[in-house]
Specification:
It is a single chain. The protein is α/β, with parallel strands linked by helices. It has helices at 26-43, 96-99, 134-138, 176-189, 208-212, 223-240, 257-261, 270-282, 287-306, 351-365, 431-456, and strands at residues 2-12, 16-17, 52-55, 62-72, 89-94, 113-114, 153-154, 200-205, 244-249, 316-321, 330-331. The chain has a 4-stranded parallel beta sheet with strand order 5-8-9-10, sandwiched between helices. It starts with a strand and ends with a helix.
Length: 457
């Protein structure tokens, strides 16, 4: 038998999370976490207990490292017996959230920059200790993992540094087939990786722009169209790409977006930018209809993946990661929505939000199907164990629950909320002038804030 030691990192972010109903006390979580850690330590071999606590500061991650050893039987690898150590290549599809738009921005003009290197699903800048992404977590298990993007750039242009992060800002579900074909071509022609032999983890997160476009494009934004377009991309991967886990991240509840703009620590102009990026949602006029369609996206996507159509080979599968299903907005210590998890436009994720996304998608990977968390939350980074060393799929979850589709209650009282103005979701011609003026104001504001900062220091 082969002994593999994997370095696992548990990270507790010292902050609070909650919703309008519940607020979690981070200090209590930390106490409980330490107690659970002591119980875990007693189960580890005494020779392998190497615990070091790094306490950097009150609002920074508290990191605990220890070695976990487990035996992996000498068997043929299948998609259902993959450990994090076995993943050789990362790929990512999606929109601006996966492209890292505005992730490192401090001022509003910075949202024009794509910070792909810190994207939660596709970035690989720095290390886990300073930048939490899916790649920096997996590098703790396989330092030679490939495919992640690095650096940043202005506007979208395919760069060599993007590698297999093919997400395009503004992307919608109907773009997934083109992105999938682009990724397949890149995988087949990349000299740094082996298309036939490398085990691949491909992540897809899409749907925000579809929900934003409901008012302007009702026929192409139905749940049926949304899921049908994603299915085309999944079918292509199944037909052409060997040795692959595709994980689809469930769409978030986008109707909560206006609450971010109302936060006390939100950027002053972000309410305006929300209207420009996603007026249908930001207006709040169509909440009932939006909630119904948003939930239909989630239900039908889960039904597609749970159908078993992608579980027909031992070297390919699709897994749904549902941690956004019941979206919980992060809150400050006084229980108010915390806009620091979002970029200055209150629409895209900040670097902090990307770290949270990476933490939660990783934890879903470590949870059996049928028992995966369905809320975005601050928690430990979970570790593979001796009993469950694998990335969970339909073939290794061993849960009677994972084949039972959840029946979600889509209430009949979700009535249509027609717009009070004709074509109100279409941009009037005079708005272009306002946008130009707004850009000028933002540039001036950014310059003045820079000057004030220099004077103070």
């Amino acid at each position: 038998m082969e002994i593999r030691s994997v370095l696992c990192m548990l990270c507790v972010l010292h902050a609070t999370m909650g919703s309008g109903i519940e607020v979690v006390d981070a200090s209590t979580d930390w106490t409980n976490y330490l107690e659970n850690l002591k119980l875990l330590q007693t189960q580890l071999d005494a020779d392998n207990d190497q615990v070091v606590v790094h306490e950097i500061g009150r609002n920074t991650p508290r990191e605990i490292f220890f070695n976990v050893s487990f035996e992996s039987p000498p068997q043929k690898k299948t998609v259902h017996t993959l450990t994090p150590h076995d993943i050789d290549v990362l790929g990512a599809l999606g929109d601006s959230l996966t492209a890292g738009t505005g992730a490192g921005a401090y001022y509003l003009p910075g949202i024009a920059i794509q910070f792909r290197g810190i994207s939660w699903l596709g970035g690989g800048d720095e290390s886990l200790e300073t930048s939490m992404t899916l790649a920096t977590i997996l590098r703790k298990f396989n330092p030679d993992i490939k495919g992640y993007s690095v650096g940043n750039g202005l506007g979208y242009a395919s760069r060599e540094e993007d590698w297999f992060n093919v997400a395009v800002p503004g992307g919608r579900a109907h773009d997934m087939l083109d992105q999938a074909q682009n990724l397949v071509n890149l995988l087949k022609n990349d000299s740094r990786t082996s298309f036939e032999n490398d085990w691949k983890l491909i992540s897809i997160f899409i749907g925000g722009n579809d929900l934003c476009a409901i008012g302007n494009d009702p026929n192409r934004t139905t749940a049926e169209a949304y899921v049908g377009d994603i299915k085309k991309a999944l079918d292509l991967f199944q037909a052409e790409v060997p040795r692959t886990i595709v994980q689809v991240i469930q769409i978030l509840e986008i109707y909560l977006l206006p609450q971010v703009a109302d936060a006390d620590n939100a950027y002053p102009l972000c309410g305006v930018t929300q209207q420009l990026f996603c007026g249908y949602v930001a207006s709040g006029r169509n909440d009932d209809e939006l909630k119904r369609i948003n939930r239909d996206y989630q239900i039908q996507l889960a039904e597609l993946i749970d159908s078993g159509v992608y579980d027909e080979r031992d070297d390919f599968t699709v897994v749904l990661q549902p941690f956004f299903e019941n979206t919980v907005l992060p809150v400050t210590e006084d229980g108010k929505v915390d806009a620091s998890f979002f970029a200055p436009d209150c629409f895209h994720f900040s670097s902090k939000g990307h770290a949270m996304g990476a933490l939660n998608v990783w934890n879903n990977m470590m949870e059996p199907i049928g028992e995966k968390a369905k809320e975005w939350s601050i928690s430990d980074l979970k570790c593979p164990t001796v009993d469950n060393p694998y990335i969970f799929t339909s073939g290794n979850s061993h849960s009677t629950k994972h084949r039972n589709r959840q029946q979600r209650d889509v209430k009949a009282e979700y009535a249509e909320s027609p717009c009070i103005y004709e074509d109100c979701n279409k941009m009037p011609s005079w708005v272009s002038g306002v946008i130009i003026a707004l850009v000028v104001v933002m540039a001036i504001e950014s310059f003045l804030m820079f000057v004030v900062h220099k004077v103070k220091h």
